[in-house]
Structure prediction request, 905 residues.
Amino acid sequence: MSTTSTGNTGSTNPLLYIVILAFGIAAPFVMPAYIQQVSFLWIFILFALTWDLQGGQMGYNSFGNIVFFGTGMYVSASTQVALYFDLGAWNESGGENTFIHATDEYFIGLAAGLVLSGIVAAALAAFLGSGILGLRGQYFAICTLGLSVAAGEIAAGIDLIGAGSGMSTPVWPDAADSVIERGTFFYILCFMLAVATFIACKYLYSGRFGMVLNAIRDDEDKAEAMGIHTTRYKALSWTISAFFLGISGAIMGNIIGFIDPVDVAFTGATFGVWMVLMAILGGKGTLWGPVLGAAIFHIMQELFWTYFLGWQRVALGLLIILIVVFLPQGILGSLREHFPEWFGHRLEPVAVEDEK
Amino acid sequence: MKNKAILEVCNSSKSFGGVIANHNISLTVPEGEIVGLIGPNGSGKTTLFNTIVGTHPLDNGEVYFEGQEISSLRVPEIARLGMLRTFQQTRIYGGMTGVQNMRISSPLIHDSNFSTMFSGLPPEVDERSDELLEFVGLYEKRNLMSGDLSFGQQKLLEFAMALMNEPKLLLLDEPTAGINPTLINGLIDRLKLANEKFGITLFVIEHNMRVVMNLADSIYCLAHGEMLAHGLPDEIQNDQKVIDAYLGAS
Amino acid sequence: MDNILLLIEAPFLSVQAILDGIIIGALFSLAAYGMALVWGVMRIINIAQGEFVILGGYVAYFLYEAGIHPMFGIPVAGVVLFVVGYGLYKVVIYRVVDKDLFISLLATFGLSILIQQLMNIMFGADVQIAEAGFGTSFMFDYNVTIPHIRIVTFIVSAFLGALLVIYIKRSRLGQAIRATAQNARAARVMGIDTDHVYAMTFSLNAAICGATGALVAMTFAIHPYIGLPYTIRSFMIVIMAGLGNLPGVIAAGTGIGVAEQFADYIFGAEFRMAFIFLLLVAFLVWRGRMLARKREVLK
Prediction:
């Protein structure tokens, strides 16, 4: 009897990993025209996975995780620029036209930016978490929603980072094209980061960390009454999500090349909601659900752009409602409800007799 | 002769917006014994439990656990000292299997720092969990979602989880409520066994007089938020004040 | 900090801020009362509250465009939004009313995004005003300006609020609504058609929002994306005041209105949105802390 399981408890068919890795590695060669879309797919998977680390596994439904994405974006871009030029002057001049990063400057700056974006976003999450994670249920959800809007508004008011008119990231040095193309380079970063996020989540869910998160989700008061350091786990969960989200923001900013505070960085009404939706669509509280949900959602989203041009935002709003109303358990959640045995939930007699 | 006190409550008072739930309650739970707490509905039993384990702050008075004052500690801190409570309405982690419920209740979880938070649990935990699940008779159902278990089974699971946590003192809030009467005797035996075999002191709120008379070494009786009587089961059973309180005479 | 000094040196600014704040607060209170109604009765936090307001604003605006005085927009928007609310209840809301709180939150969030985008496509993204043409008064040597529409808004809000309270207290439906709010199951057992009560509550809230929106279109301005701040203000007022506490709602509404006006002077109007949303975050965290001190949690 094979035990292919997609819950937290079971093991996964290794074939699935091979297929996904093969796709990830082959994609830039097989479909070079779609390289940016596939890069975004990896980032979307990261979005859904990091959201689920709180929303699905811990029961803290956040509308504010986008804050760490946007923060990472700004931190990285500012670092990349400020290492070599004056940040204020860069943004006043519109950036890329006046100041040119040399090849080594570009890559050293980018490396520093990536590292710093993760660290700053994680530190921000730890700081915010100490206050906000004390809230429960819809209060947490709405508080984080407020946070995500506030972050965009604040960024739009700070002149040093370009205020409302946004900020551009350093231009890809043409000299580097001989080694690797821009699209491919960032594709690899996205792919590696998504894989790293997945491995981190899988590792976390396999040990006591994931169990504690689930306990908090099911009954936080009980978990406290059993002596669990709930606050520590909650804060750490958010910090880990923020770390990966921060780096993803840094990469995304460089792919897009221009950071608008509300439309690119702190995109509460698009990415901010989509990450919730992708996790729910696939099945929140599972390891593979967010991955599946992100893949399906991303494909639908691209189809909407192709077939409902002009109406794609309306279609997405409709999609949110449809998913929430008709598929609140998500794909894997519904499967688990109807076929619990697939997920390892079955009676097991004390003495092993004949298995049918 | 008398064991030293593991839990001492001194003049504890608690009111909720003018309603006095507990007034000047003092009691002692000696180490290694089973102490019962009875009283009519609304007499403040659960409130007393809540104040002891730190769910509500005390208005007045002190609580000592093993001689250490714990009146201002928070729920998880008190639990980590070794005093645990179960809930009247039964609380388990419904979205996890029985085994997971047990594993997460291991006292090893109390030690959570950066090196241990991310690690797994040693195999002894699984052995212990299997033992205890068998002890309460849930071994067969250990891989079912615990939220799908019947109320009585959830109650047993909660009890097993509490034992898993290896407390020194266990506060049980109506352990037999909602359990099939034919199973109650089995549960009493298990409570006694837990007390003898695992050396856990028990402090039990119980409505069922037959159960508490059978189980407890000594009994406290609350009425209208005040301590009415304390004594051996026989004494309590024949105490006129207790009888009046239960029959609503006072 | 120059801005604070300016406030002290020019007391008229404070007078202006307080007057504006009170008038705005009355408007917020009205929308908040509707939100409290839906929250209390249906256990749903309606994120689309602000979008209902803006939709109501567009009704008044189109009447104005058609040459009808926008004051008529108040009842008309109320009726139109009542119908919209009823439709939305029958199509979407009734499916999530008994579900997990986050599901209903997300569903109304989806509605909010959908309505925003539809308004953007159908009405355009421009800022619109329904000009009531009531003129303006000046006080203290032209240092304090009071557009008459603001006074009208204040009176109409107070009138609508009073009407609503009496309706909920006295009418059959109002009694059914209050019974359902206290205990839906018991109400059902006693023969109250709770589904109808839910539908009416949601529609009534939409109607309140519609009327509020008509006033917003006359007093301030509307565009498709300005809804969310109204939702957040309503939410803040409700949690500050508690469900079903009308004096509290008015006090909190006015307080937020005045605080916003002062924040405009101190931080600059470009930070107004940031201020509103940070105020929400700060207030929630502060409340959580206060409750934690009593070893309770905000639920």
In short: The beta strands of chain A are 167-168, 258-259. The radius of gyration of chain A is 21 Å. Confidence is low (pLDDT under 50) at residues 1-10, 351-356 of chain A. The interface with chain C takes residues 61, 63, 131-132, 134-139, 141-143, 145-147, 149-150, 153-154, 156-157, 164, 269, 273, 276-277, 280, 310-311, 313-314, 316-318, 320-321, 324-325, 328 of chain A (CB under 8 Å).
